[in-house]
TrEMBL record:
InterPro entries: ABCF_ATPase, P-loop_NTPase. This is ATPase component of ABC transporters with duplicated ATPase domain protein. It comes from human gut metagenome.
Length: 61
């Protein structure tokens, strides 16, 4: 977990980083806000990237 943050946090954290390994290590959920809609992914960051690509491909079909 990130320095200074507890292992379990009862709340939300807005986290901005380009370090994908770091994001995978500290996230268990990603909420994407796109075109006025919120998409809730309860998975680590790298899995979110895959699921987002699949969702977008389905939307384009």
């Amino acid at each position: 977990m990130a320095r200074g943050l507890p292992e379990k946090l009862n709340g939300a954290v807005l986290l901005i980083s380009h370090d994908r390994a770091f994001l995978d290590n500290v996230t268990t959920r990603t909420v994407e806000i796109s075109l006025g809609k919120a998409y809730d992914y309860k998975v680590p960051y790298s899995r979110y990237v895959v699921l987002r690509a699949e969702r977008r491909a389905q939307q384009m079909a």
